[in-house]
Design a protein that fits this description.
mainly alpha, 3 helices
Amino acid sequence: MAITSSSTLAEVKAQYNDNLDWDGNPTKATLALAAIRWLLVNRPARFAIGGRQTDFTVLEAEKKMLEDYLQVSGGIVNRVSFTRGVMNT
């Protein structure tokens, strides 16, 4: 799913949860990173409801890990530098 400005919190949380096992998978890492970025931009740093407190600053550390991983892995899957392939026979 592509996260947009009209995405809901439920959609973004679903994308994040669906890609929790991103380690070793650039596609899942990219989707998880997009969800974390959305959460960080669209949520307060901290809030409390009914005695439960949530701190979104923990996501900053995971965001950094994802960015580092994607930088090392080449980021987007199927990125190629050639424009024409010839089959070896």
